[in-house]
Amino acid sequence: MKMKMKYLSLVLLSLFICSCSEKKLEPITDSLGKPGVVTDIEVTPVPGGAVVSYRIPNSEDILAVEGRYILADGKEHKVTSSFYENKVEILGYNDMVEHKAKLYVVNRAQEFSDPVEVSFTPLESSLSKTIKTVDIISDFGGAQFNWRNKDKAPFTVEFLAEDSLSQMQTLRIMTTEADSGRYSLRGFQPEARRFGMIIRDYYDNASDTIYPAGGTLVPLFEEALNKKHMVVMKLGSDANFTNWEGMDSYLIDDDHDTFGHSPSNSLPAAFTVDLGCVAKPSRVVMFQRKYSDSYYNWGNPKQFEVYTFKGTGAPSQDGNWDEWEKVLDCEIVKPSGSPSGTVTDEDFTAGVEGHEFSFELSQEPIRYIRFKILNTWGGSSFTHPADVDFYGEVVQ
Q: Strand pairing partners for 324?
């Protein structure tokens, strides 16, 4: 028994010593010799860089082509393209002067060829083109930022406003690849103030702070419209929101724990609000019902349309849609972009704060406004919004 135990101990000791020995990281393939260089090179300038195409050496052990170049940050950047490809993209410049890059062929033994240097002059970068389109104008309660991103490049956008100490403070940061953008900073009194915007690209190139023409803006007056004077109208083609503990009046009661609930098979479901005054509207805020302790589920609105009454006097009782003009296409989105069934803290906060949709500044004053809910987050045939807020300036 002692001999067996002694033998077992020796085996375990040997295994331990082997496991602790230093391992050498070596190529898994033997070298077939230093690789040759790329040939038949063609350089095509693109916004912010160039696309370099080539022919790789005729060797069975070629793994990739690596491009190396220096950007404005002074650091060397690398891009790699597999042997299945015949090009690399050299990107990240925010100027239109000549630059150089070096191309290396890499084999499976991780050996590099001699470098081949290429020269190119980038076309105007997406960042530079977008900066030129920025327009910052007065908006209800603040400033409206507009821009175009024709190349659909990925940008980070910072929105700034002057604080009480005359210092510029970043109030919101967003990322976008959309071909155009609009965002409003709100909550300011109608007093002259500086607003600004900074755009950054994927390579950390950044604009200077972009200010409105003239340097400052005076925000337009805005207030929450008084719901005590509002009523949900009962037009003939509107849905009934009095189902499953819902009430029509709950849609505008400022209580987010109550809700209106349309019947099954009612989508698209419309409801109409008499604001009780004539107002130039600035925005509406749609609140979801908190269902199963969450949002973005069940019958909560996802896509809806907003209409304003075109006629004079009051709308026809039958709800004739010819009397109404669509002014907004709205979609409630999750800030995180998470898939269905996943709600992050950021998404939850957005659900609590409500989802804002702005009117065009050219929108004429209105008294009657109509909503048509098209579909829901849960794919249900009914909907149950919790509340709608209205903002603008009363004119009559």
A: 309
Tokens of 178: 């959309």
Burial class (CB in 10 A: 0-12, 13-18, 19+), 357: middle
CA dist list (Å): 183 to 98, 172, 352: 36, 10, 20
Name the nearest CA neighbour of 121 among 54, 72, 69, 50.
50
CA 297 from centroid of its chain's CA atoms: 21
CA distances from 378 to 256, 297, 299, 302, 319 (A): 19, 5, 6, 9, 28
CA angle, corner 147, sides to 205 and 361, nearest 5? 150
**Distance between CA 144 and CA 295 in Å, rounded?**
28
Strands 76-82 and 87-91: unpaired
| Pair 396, 280: CB distance under 8 Å | no
219: tokens are 């925000």
Q: Which residues, listed in sequence order, are joined to residue 118 by a DSSP beta bridge?
A: 101
Terminal CA-CA length for the chain: 103
Q: Is 316 in a helix, a strand, or coil? A: coil
CA gap 368, 272 in Å, rounded: 7
Residues 6+ apart with CB under 8 A from 27: 108, 109, 110
Per-residue pLDDT reduced to its tens digit, 284-339: 999 999 999 999 999 999 999 999 999 999 999 999 999 999 999 999 999 888 99
pLDDT tens digit string along 328-371?
999 999 988 899 899 999 999 999 999 999 999 999 999 999 99
Prior bond of 268 cis (ω within 30°): yes
Most distant CA pair in the chain, distance: 107
